[in-house]
């Protein structure tokens, strides 16, 4: 025989009810079945509410009438049950009180009504079915409200009943209720129908218990909290038991034990989705141990500190006895080997009582100062990773810390297959998602805030949106841009902006400070945060440290952060280290070329870099590559470069040499040199009188540059060309190096002399490579290569 149990929600709606009938029809054709039902929908709660109304002298009658008039109550003859309820309510309203015994009698009617309605529906459809009141065979103790079955007696009676029942008749048995030996009605505790079903399965030695719920089965985590939670196909009884301890009431030990005893498999199924295979729980070993996450949030942490109790025997026993006397059950327990204190979890509602009980028990020890503190920490949650082995716990743990979630305490069970973490309640959802993503290798979500949406920023956003799908497939990484800001306004979207972000920016962006972005990320539990600075702003750099302190990794194409004072440079690095965060800026020098990464690697591996020299600026590269070999005035070449968009809007930014100086400084600092920007020897190519005039006037006066450059060009030796180079030299093992940017002549056939277009070229001289430098060359400027470079930094961070 198979036992089918239907929960209250399965019977609540018309659709669900139809499904129940179909399922029963289907199963009844395959073999003998018996059914266990809960009360329909919210019946139990409603009956209890009416009871409260009656007790408190409120108008319980209206609510009771509404209950009686529910449409499904018209489907069967339940007059007897409604009369019982009516009398009980009336009595309670007269005496203005009730006890657990009365309450059980009231609540029990819900299940009786439910079984009658379902049995009637089945007989109406031509089945042989009978409503069976389980009070006739489930005999229990006197623990009203949460009774426990006397299994021997109940088994005997149940077997006798089923023996007498015609084989072809479907028994529709009430869940949740039983009776004492004296024949008084009891209930088996909320959700007790699961227990009833397990008992029935056990007593009748059923082949399987099929528990029809409103979910598809047991999940790797609550799908309401973790979007990509997955259904677990099979669980071992032991694993189910672990899950039960952490809130899966359907798997409560009380429910599982009767099944384990006779090795009866339990299948959790969905009434609303009869095709789903559900989750099977049995005595069969599952491969590789199943992992699942659960959260308990109605809990509090009690911390007990007693320095004077070091090594004294019996303290723990006193603690737990004091709690046991108040019937407070204790969850996660953590105690250091120093025995100076102990922390443990209780239900939130028990917290005060627990603290009081301990205060009382340890009153004397307070006087003697052996105990110094008993405190309650609320607003916490316990996350349990069931099936987690300590040997691989480092990964989820590291992912948590990387996301700035540091557990308040953690412990593992002695069997070593269950790790529990206590975290702040507000962090629980994020923590759950981080751990879940880590353990199940589910696409890691990277949440990105882009600041600056001009040429580089805008291109980057488009590139990310275009590649997101293929990156999700290839690398299992989900890129989510949740914020786009400029100096004034920001557009926020927790599920990520989409292709029409430019329009949205116009309609939906709002004035902001960086704190608003941080708060938004926190409120929406966003993990793996990256802030990208694509501005050219010195102002925005001030946000770097606050961002890092709030859990963001940083990426910038903006060079300013790395080239203002060395003090800031150092402070930022220290903050990054303290917060386990990264800062990538590959595009600061040579746009998308892998330059900084190469230098970092060489330096870290202990290779002595002795000199770095090269053409660092794409604009200056173009200008001098062209001017050196063409017979045109300098102003004409410059005008062309301006028109092609190779220069800054004011080309003096390039010709002043400051940009090259900045890049050089960034490389120098990469080698741990502590130079300041002011210490760079920069050759400014703008004659003094043209340095201070405004941009439009300057753009009108380009010819005035010609005499200066003509003279330089005339002085060139044969077979040489002009290049504007940056050079880092000196003893690079010291604190400071020599940084110079200058216009030089180089042989036409040298690497620098061969440079074409707007390419950049970097020569890295090292001790082991001697006179032959490592050369990195390629397009070193332009919005799209720069955006690609920034994208590369995103992927580098995402991989970590
Ligand atoms: N109807 C009872 C309750 O709601 C028992 C059950 O549903 O299992 O708790
Ligand atoms: Mg229920």
What are the key terms here?
800 residues, metal ion binding, 8-stranded mixed sheet, VC0802-like, 30 strands, Rossmann fold, 29 helices, 4 domains, alpha/beta, ATP-binding, binds magnesium ion, Carbamate kinase, Asp/Glu/Uridylate_kinase, binds aspartic acid, elongated, 40% helix
Strand content: 15-25%
The secondary-structure class comes to: alpha/beta
CATH topology of the largest domain: Carbamate kinase
How many discrete structural domains?
Answer: 4
Shape: elongated
Question: What does this 3D model show about the protein?
Answer:
It is elongated and about 120 Å long. It starts with a strand and ends with a helix. α2 packs antiparallel against α5 and α13 crosses α14 (428-440). It is of the alpha/beta class and 800 residues long. The protein binds aspartic acid (ASP) and magnesium ion (MG). Aspartic acid (ASP) is lined by residues 8, 38-39, 44, 110, 175-176, 190-194. Homotetramer. Residues 304-362 form the Aspartokinase ACT domain. GO terms for molecular function: aspartate kinase activity; ATP binding; homoserine dehydrogenase activity; metal ion binding; NADP binding.
Secondary structure layout plus pairing:
Elements: E1 2-6, H1 14-30, E2 33-37, H2 43-55, H3 60-68, H4 79-95, H5 100-124, E3 129-132, E4 139-140, H6 151-164, E5 170-174, E6 177-180, E7 185-187, H7 193-203, E8 208-213, E9 234-236, H8 237-245, H9 253-262, E10 266-270, E11 279-282, E12 292-305, H10 315-325, E13 333-335, E14 341-347, H11 351-361, H12 363-367, E15 373-386, H13 394-402, E16 409-412, E17 418-424, H14 428-440, E18 444-451, H15 455-475, E19 477-485, E20 489-492, H16 501-508, E21 510-511, H17 514-523, E22 529-533, H18 544-549, E23 552-556, H19 560-563, H20 566-578, E24 583-584, H21 595-604, E25 609-615, H22 618-629, H23 634-643, H24 652-655, H25 658-670, E26 681-682, H26 688-691, H27 695-700, H28 706-714, E27 720-729, E28 738-747, E29 759-766, E30 774-779, H29 783-799
Parallel strand pairs: 1-2, 1-8, 2-5, 3-5, 4-6, 8-10, 9-11, 18-19, 18-22, 22-23, 23-24, 26-28
Antiparallel strand pairs: 6-7, 10-11, 12-14, 12-15, 13-14, 15-17, 16-17, 19-20, 20-21, 25-27, 25-29, 27-28, 29-30
Helix pairs in contact: 2-3, 2-4, 2-5, 4-5, 6-7, 7-9, 10-11, 13-14, 15-29, 22-23
